[in-house]
Amino acid sequence: MNGMKIQITAELLDGLVLAILKQDDYYGYALTQRVQSVIDISESTMYPVLRRLKKNGDLTTYDQPFQGRNRRYYQLTAAGEQRLQEILRLWEQYKDNLDQIFYQRGEQQ
């Protein structure tokens, strides 16, 4: 990623993680890679996010063996689905408000 970096809020990061997990379950490293494909974030930032989402009941985990070790998979819960819908609603409002300025829509003074 080149150029200006726009800061991402914790709420938006939560929304990205929840949206990815709505599509499929992911183990931590693969989920981090998926998020990193769209925003600049470190692996050390992702794991606290996952722990917080799990503590809040938005995610659950399960382990699956892989090459002699266990991989911890993250899965969206019903509460996480509801939270994602709320974040998406807030995002649409926020995006619409910014678009009014960026694209000069709405009332002019």
Automatic annotation (TrEMBL):
Q: Which domain of life is it from?
A: Bacteria
Domain (Transcription regulator PadR N-terminal): give its ranges. 17-86
Q: What is this protein called?
A: PadR family transcriptional regulator
Gene3D superfamilies, alphabetized: Winged helix-like DNA-binding domain superfamily/Winged helix DNA-binding domain
